[in-house]
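tool_call: predict_structure(chain=1)
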Amino acid sequence: MVDREAKRAEGKGIGYDRWATMHNLKAWSKTFMYLQEHDLLSTDKLIAAVDAAGAEAREARSRYDAAAAKVTDKKAMLEAMDNYRKTYPVIKEYRMIRKEKDKQKFHAAHEADFIINDAAKRQLDKLDAPKRKEVVAEIQSLISEKNECYNDYREKSDRLHELMTMQRNYQMSMPQPKRGHSHEQER
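tool_result:
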């Protein structure tokens, strides 16, 4: 709903005011129908419904965040597996070298690969990683779970926003008590 008084204070003209009047009537009509259909005409019921929808949306968001974190962890594990696999031939070649002087030169030339391999190995040891195919399959199932959680979150979030809009419209349509001094005190 449009706050007509605020818009008039901004300098909007009579045409805008007429449009806002019709817009507010239509919005109130939709709000009233919605509240009547969902048995939310009581202020207490409406507040309780908004609070419940907010709790459901927060809970759905936490499930989505947990699923997204699992996917991120599994992708990190997969990246560590790939890094280990890519750098393993360098390590294998290093082990084949017999002379210590040649080993030092080779290590210096491929130091980045050794660092990547070592970090990947430590991460995989810490995670007790299964086979790569299992991780890829698990990532796919986690992504589908994450998508389901997101869709559930979007539905609950949309419901919350709808209820909040109805609550705002309901509050704007109710007469507000006048503030300020009364005319009786004037001379």
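agent: Residues 31 and 37 are 10 Å apart (CA to CA). Proceeding to next step.
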